[in-house]
Design goal:
Chain lengths: ~525, ~110
Amino acid sequence: MTHWIIAPVILPAILAPFIVLAARYHIGIQRVFSVAGVMALIAVAAGLAWTASDGTIILYQLGDWAAPFGIVLVGDRLSTLMVLLTAVLALFVLLYAIGSGWDDRGRHFHALFQFQLMGIMGAFLTGDLFNLFVFFEVLLIASYGLMIHAGGNARLRAGVQYVLFNLLGSTLFLFALGALYAETGTLNMADVAQRVALVDPSETVGIRLAAVLLLLVFAIKAAVVPLHFWLPSSYAEAPAPVAALFAIMTKVGAYAIIRVYTMIFHPELEVTAGLQTAWLLPAAMISLAIGMIGILAAKHLDRLVAFAVIGSMGMVMVAISMFTQTSITAALYYTVHSTLAAAALFLIVDLVGTGRADLKLTAQPTLPGAALTSALFMVAAIAMAGLPPLSGFVGKLLILDAAFPTSTAAWIWAVVLISSLIAVVGFSRAGSVLFWKAKSLPPPEEDPEAETTAAPAVLSYCAVGGLLTMLVAHTVFAGPATAYMASISQQLFNPEPYISTVLETPGKLSKPTEGH
Amino acid sequence: MELLVASGIGILTAGGIYLVLRLRTFPVILGISLLTYAVNVFLFASGRLAIGAAPVLIDGAERYTDPLPQALVLTAIVISFGMTAVVVMIALGAFLGSDDDHVDDPAAEDAT
């Protein structure tokens, strides 16, 4: 049994208290440890992804107790990919936070950042539904702290909304877990998957209730309309690096839906047949439409990007809700793309906002560094809107292709294509108002009293550039990436190795006759 | 007894949802507390109700109560207690900062 799989949870869990206790008053030392920790995370995550890439299911039994009695961590292709994506995203976000000085505007940024990573990594790696709840809470409680980092009234108010909404979500999650436990008597994912198959098809009320409640909870996390109301103001008010890190949090919801609804309540399961596809697909299409219309309607740049996140989550959910191998492949490809693009956009919003009074979509005098910022904005907007040549276009093409054989193809094609057009118009309007109209304004009168605004730091640009480079790489290596996503999807639709690895690996208690 | 527990959970949940929809922080926090009480009892009952039975499974035991929901409830109580404390602090900060305890977005701010 390899111990590496628990490292992505343990490493931030040790680093965060260390940063609080030992480096409390030294922002420099905090930065060094935080960056070193994230670098180590990337190395570990890459190693895990490499191990899992040949189809191995990495199993870790905590305390050597056998499943389903003990808690297990499971790394398959999907979860190790998400862990790697989180670690890479975290590095660029952290570099931006350091470059822009955001981490120094409040206290304990780095410690909370590490706790947040711990929760996200745990949520991706756990093989137990109750532990998924616990890791959700870990990542949420860290995100509450990060969300109101650096304070301010608007941010605190948005923070209250965000916390209350998520508390309700957590309560709903517990109701779902209770219903599931009452029906199956277990919360280990592999064990639940085996037992729901045995549920009597004539008495499906409890299990259908549990399935719908779980779907609701994950849809709140994934910000699917009509459960998206928490997202726009909290993402818009959160500090830029935090909002960029939150780009992975909506994907935690998408990940949980993929995991639970391919393994436990899979589409062929008789007792819950049609439940998720009947509701999820229309909701996803409405999210996509609302997100993209929100891009056009937004009056502030930060709200615009928040709606772009809703739209891109809608796109991911459209692909997921078809529940075929090709559509999950497309969904995974688009998930990676959307995480990187959304994070880059949030950071660019902060670059635009440096030196501006507010983020209203009006022309204001140009500031130092505007040329580079506008170029970055254009690249990120092209990626987000899904124009060629970047990966958003490839992802959209994969989704349209996956939708082609289904009966709802006409609807999906229409919504995806029209909403893309709206997004393109929305982004072009924002870009031209912010960067072109500003050029035509008369230069502001020289005011010797006014403090001159410096251009954003080089490190900030490097972080945004790094994220965009990852997007370009995701496009250039679209062939191998899609092939790997297809192998993930193939593994998801054949869960027998996962289930047998989890349940049949011996540990303590597996043979009660030996009398441990 | 099932009826009593079930209606208790139902009344707590209904009260909680009503309070959550009040849109001011104090009732909303109270409502969330009621909801967490309801969910704790619900979780506890998900292992079936058994009176006067020990939570251990040994050879020859005639009746026993499921110990796992009790462990789950303990975790849920600790988490919801901590979360409520956090939300009270954040809500207090927001109230003291803006002198307004509405949960929704102020309408005037959006219009400008």
